[in-house]
Prior knowledge:
The chain has a six-stranded mixed β-sheet with strand order 6-7-8-3-9-10, with helices on both faces. Strands 2-1-4-5 form a four-stranded antiparallel β-sheet, with helices on one face. It has a domain at about 1-75 and about 155-165 and about 190-235: P-loop containing nucleotide triphosphate hydrolases (Rossmann fold, 3-Layer(aba) Sandwich), CATH 3.40.50. α3 (about 95-100) crosses α4 and α3 (about 95-100) runs parallel beside α5 (about 135-150). Helix content is about 40%, strand content about 25%. It has helices at about 40-50, 70-75, 95-100, 110-120, 135-150, 170-180, 195-200, 220-225, 225-235; strands spanning about 1-10, 15-25, 30-35, 55-60, 65, 80, 155-160, 185-190, 205-210, 210-215. It contains nine helices and ten strands. Bound molecules: adenosine-5'-diphosphate and magnesium ion. Magnesium ion binds near residues 40, 41 and 83.
Amino acid sequence: xxxxxxxxxxxxxxxxxxxxxxxxxxxxxxxxxxxxxxxxxxxxxxxxxxxxxxxxxxxxxxxxxxxxxxxxxxxxxxxxxxxxxxxxxxxxxxxxxxxxxxxxxxxxxxxxxxxxxxxxxxxxxxxxxxxxxxxxxxxxxxxxxxxxxxxxxxxxxxxxxxxxxxxxxxxxxxxxxxxxxxxxxxxxxxxxxxxxxxxxxxxxxxxxxxxxxxxxxxxxxxxxxxxxxxxxxxxxx
Length: 237
Ligand code: ADP
Ligand code: MG
């Protein structure tokens, strides 16, 4: 479904993504790991058109995405959430999600219907009249997910699914990803919690200093010497 070939991105003297290639099959979950600054969020920006790559190619369902805007790429079927949660604070939860739904319909009534479905899915329906700033981090993550879901993606990129979330909110978020998986959604998830990935991911892509250092099934990645040294650290080993 997704083919990434030789993606590179330079910020001044820093190679944030350095010749990254991988594929994601329909209905599978790819986990992305790597220390802070490894280039994970940049990779999402390149795939979704928020940043132009310096080199490389992205294909979605066989179609080249080069030169397309984020909204165009989204309409083709790629949704994403953001690591930095920035809901429109002067809008209600429902209106925030309607912004996503309006990728599909200019009609507010129809957009509201899609938004309410998405809010129901993530368990935020009773907060629909609240404003963005009244939400906890876990609830903002759910709002992010609802907004992305309301765009009706076939492929969903989730940046830091459980990052910054308190222990209490964790199982609920993981259950949501499991439900998406159960519904056959193709997912790429940036996630630091290895235990979460062991149960969810079919494959894991490990990044370090902008480079892909390993890819494989979770059990193999967990034992990979380079991954252990660069990311998981001595304690984990
Ligand atoms: P990760 O998500 O793995 O923590 P990022 O992709 O956010 O890493 O960042 C990779 C590197 O690129 C970091 O060193 C970061 O400071 C840098 N970087 C990311 N975005 C920009 C940008 N827009 N301008 C300059 N440097 C950036
Ligand atoms: Mg990041």
